Amino acid sequence: MRGKGGFGKVLSVKDLTSGKHVALKYCTESDVEHIRRFQREVRIMASIDHENVMTVLHANVEFNPPYFTMPLAVQSVSDIIHETKGNIAKTMQVFEGMCKGINSIPTSGHTHRDIKPDNVLVFDGGKIVVSDLGLAKMDERDTTALTRAISCVLS
């Protein structure tokens, strides 16, 4: 097992189609509310197309248990914090990747609500990716009318 969250577990598995190792996250709870939250996490992550936000490779939220796969990271930012002490270049690289990913989430109409070093992952080569949108929410769209509709009859 690679990780565990509030209502999901993450495993390292081999994708039989591609032959690559990926991360598989599945819902560990069986009640309707937790399954809906898990499904929402998948929808939100799949709707954000940004290099610094985790990509959903495949999902089956109707399966029992619901699951999705994503690229397999090597560690989290929590694991590398000690490497950033006194290393401005490394600190800035991590910080920039985090900021880009975090900024793309509200830009896409969502709020993460659980930003912490454990939820920011590091890939081979140092790429930084924001992950774990299990507590994320879809922002309400502003439906306020900004212009007034005027109807007129021409005769």
SSE order and pairing:
Blueprint: E1 3-4, E2 8-14, E3 21-27, H1 32-47, E4 58-60, E5 67-71, E6 75-76, H2 77-84, H3 88-107, E7 110-111, E8 120-122, E9 128-130, E10 137-138
Antiparallel strand pairs: 1-2, 2-3, 3-5, 4-5, 6-8, 7-10, 8-9
EC number: 2.7.11.1
Domain Protein kinase: 1-155
Protein name: non-specific serine/threonine protein kinase
Instruction: Quickly give the structural class.
Output: alpha+beta
Report the CATH superfamily: Transferase(Phosphotransferase) domain 1
Q: Unreliable runs, pLDDT <50, ≥5 residues?
A: 142-149
Approximate shape: globular
Total helical segments: 3
CATH architecture: Orthogonal Bundle
- Note the main sheet: 5 strands, antiparallel
Number of strands: 10
Radius of gyration over all CA atoms, rounded: 19 Å
Mean pLDDT: 83
The CATH topology label is Transferase(Phosphotransferase), domain 1
Quote the beta fraction.
15-25%
Q: Any idea of the CATH class?
A: Mainly Alpha
Helix content class? 25-40%
Number of domain units: 1
Helix-strand pattern = EEEHEEEHHEEEE
- With strands numbered from the N-terminus, the spatial order across the biggest sheet is 1-2-3-5-4
First-last Cα distance: 74 Å
Protein name: non-specific serine/threonine protein kinase
Organism: Paenibacillus mendelii
Keywords: ATP-binding, Kinase, Nucleotide-binding, Serine/threonine-protein kinase, Transferase
EC number: 2.7.11.1
